[in-house]
Design goal:
The chain starts with a helix and ends with a helix. Strands 1-2-3-4-5-6-7-10 form an eight-stranded antiparallel barrel. The protein has a two-stranded antiparallel sheet with strand order 8-9. The protein has two helices and ten strands, in the order αββββββββββα. It is α+β, with helices and mostly antiparallel strands.
Length: about 220
């Protein structure tokens, strides 16, 4: 009997907590990001920019849909261009509330399609390829306000299929660059680090409920 009374007393608190957790889902966010590509096989570091939108499907699960454009200078002899279009799933193992001044850590995994092109600066010779990649990593949101966050993400991207390689060699005091397309071996890839600013525009679930109530009325 005592247990039953305790459950009855706690029921309003449990319902309120569940309502709060449910309120964390359904957010649609739009953002812009700066990207750094490092640990590339050619040893060069690439810089780029991109955009993204997020749809938070559950309180502890978010989705990130993005596009990046990255350029890399290869020893002043060639340049590489990379275009990524993909998605990631973000899981919040700890706190999942979006509150001003709070940090929300996450782990992520995803997939993308990528287009790469390497071009020599002197004669314009180039090779390109279209393939895909998988990525995994960690990150965190810092909530500037209840609706705006700055996110920092570090993820390792492993390419599938073929990749473009540009190698600089020095022969008789002269540097030359060789560009070739090879099959990816093992877990070849590179580290992507991005910083983004994201703004929550509306709640998709609330919009759905409002339309449903209007239709029922």
């Amino acid at each position: 009997m005592n247990k039953l009374i305790l459950m009855v007393l706690l029921l309003p608190m449990i319902s309120k907590a569940q309502e709060h957790l449910d309120s964390e889902s359904g957010y649609f966010q739009l953002g812009m990001r700066n990207v750094v590509s490092t640990f590339n096989e050619d040893g060069a570091t690439g810089f780029g920019y991109g955009g993204q939108f997020r749809i938070r499907v559950l309180s502890r699960v978010n989705t990130d849909w993005y596009a990046d454009y990255i350029t890399t200078d290869i020893g002043g002899l060639a340049r590489r261009e990379d275009l990524h279009i993909g998605w990631s799933v973000l899981a919040y193992p700890f706190n999942c509330t979006t509150t001003k001044g709070k940090i929300t850590p996450y782990i992520l995994a995803g997939h993308c399609f990528d287009y790469s092109k390497a071009t020599k600066n002197d004669d314009g010779f180039s090779l390109d390829k279209l393939s895909s990649a998988v990525q995994g990593g960690i990150g965190m949101h810092y909530n500037i306000t209840d609706r705006t966050d700055i996110s920092l993400t570090a993820q390792y991207m492993m390419h599938l299929g073929k990749d473009i390689h540009a190698e600089v060699e020095e022969i008789d005091g002269l540097k030359e660059v060789h560009i070739e397309k090879n099959q990816v071996r093992g877990i070849e890839g590179h580290m992507l680090i991005n910083v983004s600013l994201n703004v929550r525009l509306f709640d998709m679930w609330d919009q759905h409920h409002k339309r449903k109530k209007t239709a029922e009325a």
